[in-house]
Amino acid sequence: MEQRYRWKNKHLRExxxxxxxxxxPTILLKNCTYLNQTFRSWMQANIWIYEDRIVYVGEKLPENxxxxxxxxxxxxxxxxxxxxxxxxxxxxxxxxxxxxxxxxRGTTTIINDNMALILHLDKKRAFLLMKDLRRIPASMFxxxxxxxxxxIMNEEEIFSHTNIKSWLEHDAVIQxxxxxxxxxxxxxxxxxxxxxxxxxxxxxxxxxxxPGASEKTLAKMMLMGADCDHEAMTGEEVYxxxxxxxxxxxxxxxxxxxxxxxxxxxxxxxxxxYDHMMFTTDGSSSGFxxxxxxxxxxxxxxxxxxxxxxxxxxxTINPARYYNLSHIHGKIATGRVAxxxxxxxxxxxxxxxxxxxxxxxxxxxxxIGEAFPDLDWNEYGLEPFRPDWELTMDDLQFxxxxxxxxxxxxxxxxxxxxxxxxxxxLSDNHDECFFMLIDRKGKWRVNTILKGFASSLQGMASSFxxxxxxxxxxxxxxxxxxxxxxxxxxxxxxxxxxxGNILCELPLPLGGLMTGLQLEELMEEEKKLLEVLRxxxxxxxxPIYSLLFFSSTHLPYIRITQQGMYxxxxxxxxxxxxxx
Length: 580
What we know:
Blueprint: H1 9-19, E1 27-36, E2 41-50, E3 53-58, E4 69-72, E5 77-80, E6 82-87, H2 95-104, E7 107-112, H3 115-120, H4 123-133, E8 139-144, H5 155-158, H6 161-169, E9 173-177, H7 182-186, H8 190-201, E10 205-207, H9 215-224, E11 228-229, H10 235-243, E12 247-251, H11 259-268, E13 277-280, H12 294-303, H13 308-313, H14 317-322, E14 340-343, E15 353-356, E16 359-363, E17 366-367, E18 402-406, E19 412-416, E20 432-438, E21 444-451, E22 459-462, E23 470-474, H15 477-489, E24 493-498, E25 501-507, H16 519-534, H17 543-549, E26 558-561, E27 564-567, E28 572-576, E29 578-579
Parallel strand pairs: 1-4, 1-5, 6-7, 7-8, 8-9, 9-10, 11-12, 12-13, 18-21
Antiparallel strand pairs: 1-2, 2-3, 5-14, 14-15, 15-16, 16-17, 18-19, 20-21, 20-23, 21-29, 22-23, 22-24, 24-25, 26-27, 27-28
């Protein structure tokens, strides 16, 4: 927060000196065909860049070219860097590795969820990480959550007024939300309403989370202060949100790959104005990004008949305007941050070259690896997960009368347990497994039965979850113990065991939550994990999200949380967690 302005006075004077010929630009892009969003057309110009800023766009060439890198862009097309307005950069990958990968595909500005930071880091270390992430070429902004998205033990302490106020006041935080706890808001939570009011007073946006919301609920939430929602799953839901004054993020993610059908529905409804729409991949698992990040969505939009300029605007100027960032992002014009994508053709949104803050992160098809130097994660308290407690067979006692049944990758319902669960192994003739959530500090546990996750999975341990507590699943108590102990040895991660052997392990040494691997490497490791789980009966699209959402009370119907088995619809703990 110590940098009140992006460019200090001396920097602004230098920018003027470039125009006056006293200094040379750092980079000159000549003979550019670029997207001018003021005129909604492709125009010709020369683009002067000095360090991280565009200092001129027009016909003129600089008088001073000493040590200036000059690139002839004839035959290519230049668009602004793409903006991901709704990222969850903790899905095994980390904010740094996601930004590096996304930038190489042209997504150079990312607006990030702060959930993992507020739950797992103290404020000082979280803000230090955010400060250090400002030094990378990608432009990183953040949200401020108002609720933990589950039932935790110390919510009043973590989501205290003092904490939320500090987050909202941080200049890298540009929105409040997403409002997964909106039912509490409508039910009379005046503290959350006060935080929304504070965010609005600071000219920051409020992101909703309103799946299946009626027109009346959408209207109420707009009156409460919501500005945008990304949960529309049909064209009619897009229409209803637009009618109530929302900006709509069209989602295409690993668990909701909705964009093609949304665009088809929108066109059937006769919607031809795209100015209040933008794109989001909503924190997908790594494998989903093989086809790209926001560039993938632009390509789909063009293929579905969205006018080309509108498709690019939905990825650039629309989110920039929405977040009040258009004076520095989302546009190729004098004064903007030099985030530029150089394309081989208008129909191919994955760039051949990328400038992020005036630095090449991709050049002529080659990723510049050194553009994103590594971080020392230990400095932020994200050290390997080394619990100082033991899991024993005494912990693996299962006697609850009902369990959790998976309806799909993320929706879970209660069901009556008819199995004999006192034995040490369950049969492979059904899809029911032992299921435990245990405190990462070993203080409490919740034991039940999980139906529908797998039919022959013997043992799995995961330190990756919504709250960072440990998830244990399997048919064999011995293999569950074996997987847990191996997970401890590797400093946290996801481990699958069978017959006392390790079938698959994915280390997550950054607090037991994230890997330091590059996304391309993580994709391969995640693919191996998926193949192992599929071979043992996992039948859904995304096991990473299944693990993440077992505790998430913004989804129906029953969840396993720090407080115990939780009935989401009736907002009550059915069976409390057991102290160890």
